[in-house]
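Hey, I was hoping to borrow your eyes for a little while. No rush at all, and the record is pasted right below:
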Amino acid sequence: MIQRAAEEPEPGFSDLGLSPEMLDSLRRARYVTPSPIQAAVIPEALDGNDVIGQAKTGTGKTAAFGIPLIEMLEERGKGPQALILAPTRELAQQIVAELEKLAINHDVAICAVYGGQPIDKQLRALQRGVDIVVGTPGRVIDHIRRGSLYLGDVVHVVLDEADRMLDIGFRPDIEKILRRVPDPHQTLLLSATIDPEIRRLADTYMFEPVELLLSKDEPSAETVNQFYVTVDQDRKTELLLHLLRKEKPTQCIVFTRTKRGADRLAARINRVVKGVATIHGDLPQTARDKVMKAFRSGEIPVLVATDVVGRGIDVTGISHVINYDIPEDPENYVHRIGRTGRMGRNGVAYLFVTPEQGEPLTNIELLMNRTIPPLPLDDFVAHDPEAKARKKEGAFRELFSYL
């Protein structure tokens, strides 16, 4: 495995050996300067090398692999030339949307394949002929078994958010797919972390990959201002409304622990705040697609979500993340707050902690190797230590009044 230190980003995309058509597409898409991951990956990919790119989410990874893929495509054959695997349907959709912007000056057919959508539409698209297929591993396997996805022409494979795909158990499917791709082919692996599982996968299925390390392995959120608030359980909704009125976020994601809790909370705050929607695993795919489209366009300023779909939300303009429910797994906190502070922008993350949840807060701080400060609240009473005692005393008085 070849390790190379990530170089400083070049002044512009014109220094990366891109075609005039691609440079025009980048100008139209308002790409000005390559991010570090883009400046590092694009030249290596264009040289035909296998690449492992490590960088945090929100750093421009889609364009890092999408630009060279589009540039390297040749005349369309029987099957796709490039296969991109992603962990969630939401991420697959976002990749397709980004690739379509980048390929505006190229004759490129792109198809997304994922579960939760009628397969007939995907079958028709594949039958018409495509250059790039973007899909979740399970649905890609389904199409291979049906004979609707021919991998014999694939010469480029991308594993996006590889760590996430392994975390949720896609390794067997990924390996089945990689074994079907003919050699020689190029593999680009993008991941927020490089752990032993990632290295084993790379050792088995990649050829002398160039390793570009653009972030440390530990969780990081330098561009996110984090605070916690000690709040009584029955004051959480009022606190949320208070913060939304005070902060006036450009776009905000509110994370809850359960799907039912997301629905209940969205219904409550929708009476006061305009443009609230919810997204979770129980929503039909068509409804999820509609919500995400509206959220990306800015029509929905507040999105209430569960962790199941939280990592698939990749929207640059999210200014705030509010952890209405503290996550059971500390790593989910890192993934949640990673939805803001993207592409160098600053973001804000609030964590609601009830008086009994000191231990989960400590676990998050230990994982991140940092202390999360309390949020000063001079204009709102989030926690009243004497309220419980007063309530208990009132109950006793009521009881004894009947005796």
Remarks:
- The first strand starts at residue 2 and ends at 5.
- Confidence is low (pLDDT under 50) at residues 5-11, 399-403.
